[in-house]
Design brief:
This is GGDEF/EAL/PAS domain-containing protein. One of its GO terms (molecular function) is cyclic-guanylate-specific phosphodiesterase activity. InterPro entries: Cyclic-di-GMP_PDE-like, EAL_dom, EAL_sf, GGDEF_dom, Nucleotide_cyclase, PAS, PAS-like_dom_sf, PAS_fold_3. With 552 residues, the chain is an alpha/beta fold. The chain has 3 domains: 125 residues, PAS domain (Beta-Lactamase, 2-Layer Sandwich); 147 residues, Alpha-Beta Plaits; 241 residues, EAL domain (TIM Barrel, Alpha-Beta Barrel). It is 41% helix and 23% strand. It is built from 21 helices and 22 strands. Strands 14-15-17-18-19-20-21-22 form an 8-stranded mixed barrel, surrounded by 4 helices. The protein has a 6-stranded antiparallel sheet with strand order 3-2-1-6-5-4, sandwiched between helices. A 5-stranded mixed sheet has the order 8-9-7-12-13, with helices on both faces. Strand 15 and strand 16 form a beta hairpin. Helix 9 packs across helix 10. It is globular, with a radius of gyration of 27 Å. The protein starts with a helix and ends with a helix.
Length: 552
């Protein structure tokens, strides 16, 4: 075969290749019928070599017989340039004769005439979990969870300290991703040096670094964190150039051997995020007064997490009416998730959602809320054509690309019109890069969904400049005691003037009495919400409200 063919395959392969034990890449020249495969795939599946002729047949023979038809249908549609599900799963046989679940994602590369010439594919072996981060060389959060599980089984108490940069996205924007990786690597090295003989260091999710210690007290951890904070502020240098960076930190002491390690892990993440977003990087200890949430104890959050896993056990939905500022008629409702289980009783979302948003299980809960709320609201929407349902969009949902497919499926299953749905971006959205957020919002808008935004201050209004926002909610933290708080009064005056000029629908929330309602109507807002118009209630009670009956 001509050397040029190999060169072309190699250039494409190098573009797609990644370093991972469980992720493989292959590039297929459709005309020459030759492909190049990752060496780790060659070794794991016992392939004949890095370059394979007639690879389609070779690989098909390794796929489980029950999965071959589905795989061939997917490949043929991909090669033909047809739109397919971006991910497909199947079972493939390794060199030991064992079948493992794999998922693949491919892209067809066309020539100038539009003819498919190359197929590049990434395969993930779900039977292997990488246990080391390739950038810091630290064991990852899977290994950390395993370590925590072993300590629990041995009934050993320990402390887990999590640290992260206040805004690593800003570091990447200022210095570039290569320097960003060097900064993370240098910080990890410092952490390893400081933790020598007193604990084990891990890389958590994203750019989080973590330390698990069986010997350190809270006072020890405070001093340790102080040294790390001084290092990133004053001593962190890359290539001889000083790079000052702020970090946040959260810690939890694990002493209850009945609590799941995932709940402890999530609680540490919650304390870390509280440090970053509420305490300017000061160390936060989970399960103390600094979290301003007495019910956020480890027993409750562990029970809530298990309830999600057990089919949303104990969760239910309530709805609060939204009315027009012009004539007081019903125009919409916002959904709130509740949880009830003994001995905790009925727990409001304010007491567990901020914590649970740090856990991967929240993705399933968020989708459950969305699907059930749409089912509940369908009858009302069919009767009131301008009615809209407002649902908070969790960070976990925005973060995942598969949420797009999930949303389409939910809309299709429920039959609820997308134009009557408003998905609201909460403060957790700020954890995402603006590029990712723009992409997700553009998709939602293309589906006909309206985009809402909770506004707590002037800073959160910056999203209005960067994203196509349809609705702004002025939260109760700003609206409460507005008659007595002159500062909030002027802030709301500025926000509503801004949104009014941009023709953005604005909802004044937290209205509890006639006096506040009259104050709210002085501003150019379109919608009003609060206990004065109705407390959150289940859907059957909602349909009995006078507001609803009058709107029919």
């Amino acid at each position: 075969m001509a050397q040029g063919t190999y060169d072309t395959i190699n250039r494409i392969f190098d573009t797609f290749a990644v370093t991972s034990r469980s992720r493989y890449v292959y590039v297929f020249d459709m005309g020459k019928n030759i492909s190049r495969w990752s060496l780790n795939a060659v070794d794991y599946f016992g392939l004949t070599g890095e370059y394979i002729y007639n690879a389609s047949s070779v690989w098909e023979n390794r796929i489980h017989p029950d999965d071959r038809d589905n795989y061939n249908e997917y490949i043929q549609a991909s090669f033909a340039g047809k739109k397919v599900n971006p991910n497909i799963e199947y079972r493939a046989r390794n060199k030991n004769g064992e079948y493992v679940v794999c998922s693949c994602r491919g892209v067809v590369i066309k020539d100038y005439a539009g003819k498919p010439v190359f197929y590049a594919c990434s395969i993930i072996n779900k039977g292997i979990v990488d246990n080391n981060d390739p950038i810091t060389l630290l064991p990852n959060h899977y290994e950390m969870l395993n370590h925590m599980r072993q300590l629990k089984l041995k009934k050993k108490e320990y402390a887990i300290l999590m640290m992260n940069f206040m805004d690593f996205g800003d570091i990447n924007r200022r210095y570039g991703y290569a320097i960003g990786n060097n900064i993370l690597r240098a910080t990890a090295k410092k952490l390893i040096d400081e933790a020598k003989d007193i604990g084990k260091v891990y890389r958590g999710e994203g750019t989080t670094l973590a330390l698990i210690s069986e010997s350190m007290t809270i006072d020890d951890i405070k001093k340790f964190y102080g040294r790390m904070r001084s290092f990133t502020r004053d001593a962190l240098a890359i290539g001889g150039k000083k790079v000052g960076a702020e970090i946040g930190g959260g810690v939890i002491l694990a002493a209850d051997f009945e609590v799941d390690e995932h709940s402890i892990y999530t609680s540490a993440k919650y304390a870390l995020n509280f440090s970053k977003h509420q305490r300017h990087g000061n160390l936060i200890i989970f399960h103390n007064d600094e979290l301003d949430n007495k019910k956020s104890n480890i027993d409750m959050v562990d029970a809530i997490r298990n309830s999600v896993i057990n089919g949303m056990e104990g969760f239910y939905l309530e709805y609060q009416p939204i009315v027009s500022s012009v004539d007081g008629r019903l125009v919409g409702m916002e959904v709130f998730v509740r949880w009830q289980k003994e001995p905790f009783g009925s727990v409001s979302p304010a007491e567990f959602v901020p914590w649970l948003e740090n856990d991967q299980v929240f993705y399933n809960l968020g989708n459950w809320i969305l699907e059930n709320a749409l089912r509940d609201a369908l009858e009302i929407r069919m009767r009131l054509k301008d009615f809209y349902l407002s649902v908070n969009l969790a960070f976990m949902q925005l973060e995942r690309s598969e949420f797009r497919t999930t949303l389409i499926d939910i809309l299709r299953k429920t039959g609820y019109p997308s134009t009557g749905l408003c998905l609201e971006l909460t403060s957790g959205s700020r954890q995402l890069s603006i590029e990712h957020l723009e992409s997700q919002v553009e998709f939602l808008k293309a589906c006909g969904v309206k985009i809402g935004l909770d506004v707590t201050d002037f800073a959160s209004l910056d999203y209005v400049r960067q994203l196509p926002i349809d609705l702004v909610n002025i939260v109760p933290a700003l609206t409460e005691n507005i008659g007595k708080n002159v500062t909030n009064k002027y802030v709301i005056e500025s926000i509503t003037s801004f949104t009014h000029r941009l023709h953005i629908r604005t909802c004044f929330t937290g209205i509890e009495d006639e006096e506040t309602a009259q104050v709210a109507k002085q501003y150019p807002v379109s919608d009003l919400m609060g206990y004065y118009y109705g407390r959150p209630c289940k859907i059957d009670k909602f349909k009995e409200l006078d507001l609803y009956k009058k709107a029919l």
